[in-house]
């Protein structure tokens, strides 16, 4: 799986230290177990970018948000690129909106 941060996203980049991700230009490659769910994959990415609790993260495949319970191998089989990789984009949003409370 090739993982890339969305251009306009304000969440951090993936932590390159002590990670399973390998830099390839601005992409990160990750070998995903066949039975991993999208929700579990999001959890792994969330840990790698050290995202704060008030931020939500979303992943997109072909600009579509896959179901949390979907199996990554099924998404790979359906959406992989002709080069053999599945391209995933991640982005984030404030969980509680963009306002700071007093």
Automatic annotation (TrEMBL):
Predominant localisation class = membrane
Q: Which family does it belong to?
A: Belongs to the ATG8 family.
Keyword annotations for this protein, in alphabetical order, are: Autophagy, Lipoprotein, Membrane, Transmembrane, Transmembrane helix, Ubl conjugation pathway
Q: Which GO terms describe its biological process?
A: autophagy
Q: Name one GO cellular component term.
A: autophagosome
Which lineage is the organism of this entry classified under, starting from the top rank?
Eukaryota, Viridiplantae, Streptophyta, Embryophyta, Tracheophyta
Query: What organism does this protein naturally occur in?
Result: Aquilegia coerulea (Rocky mountain columbine)
- Cellular location of this protein? Membrane
- Could you tell me the superkingdom of the organism this chain comes from? Eukaryota
Protein name, entry field: Autophagy-related protein
Q: Where are the transmembrane segments?
A: 57-76
Please report which positions carry a covalently bound lipid of kind Phosphatidylserine amidated glycine: 97
